[in-house]
Amino acid sequence: MDPIVLIGALSALIELAPRQLFDQYSVLRQSYGHLVAIGISLVRPNIATQYERVETLILRGEDEPALAFRQAVMDECNMNAVAGAIIAQVAITGLSLPNLSATHWLARACLLFAVVSGCLTVYYSCVLQRTIGQLYSPALIRDWLSLPSEESTKTASLAAIFILSAPFDMMRASIFSFLLSLAIYQGFTWTYALDTAAGPRDSRNVFISFVVGTGVCGFFFSFTFLSKYAESLLRSDQRLKARSSEPVDLSHVADNHQRPYTEGQVIEPWHNRYTRTSEDETMPAEKLSAILETAAQAHTQCAEANQTVALAFLRAARGQQDTMQHTSHQS
Q1: Model pTM?
Q2: 204: enclosing H helix or E strand
């Protein structure tokens, strides 16, 4: 990777990430308050991002994105179910490792947790896929993703967002638990020399190879993922700046009588210019007369109200002047 591109991506990440966190906090604060918004924005920023996208693209968007979102959730459930089943099967096999009972109890606990979380990933993926699959229309999808409210503007439900991310979070926890159990097992095998058939340094070399390989793979993906995240932040910032710098077209506001006259131009009659509606149709004379009469009545009422206020101020000024004169005479 080019060092200049790398430095630019890191600087963009440092500069724009807090701004995005603040935007996500602002969206959550409107419905759930400061405490919940701060906690989710800092601890689970992916939940805050998905919450913002659901509210802007699904609840306030067209029907096509809602149906595409439904299909994407069902495909993700299939992926999580397959991955959870594979991890659970591998973790069950790991319980039969030689000398596992001689290592720390945390190794067996992590393997059992990997089995349980993998099985629950399969189950909750099936439940979520069945639930989403029964939402046959965009209106039902929006109702499931939103809070119950009588207002026309829908607000995204935080519980629905957590339900959507639960299978993937369980699958991820199962993978991390399985890797942790392998690290504990290999570490105890090396330090306590549990593998008597291996050479004097074989267990150490296996443990170092495991740690280095896992670390390199994790660092490579995490680093490239953060670089891509920084690029997306830069792209979003550029779009926002381009949208804010676009000139505003006010040509449609100007009337025909405000435009300069050129030779040979046909002057449109005044009654057509002043009685045209937005559909470029001529307004009936009766409707124009009623509008002008209503405007005249409103002006008359405003003038009467101003006169009443002026008289009230005048009476108050005279009363204050009389009071001051009466006080001066008494003194």
Answers
A1: 0.64
A2: helix 202-244
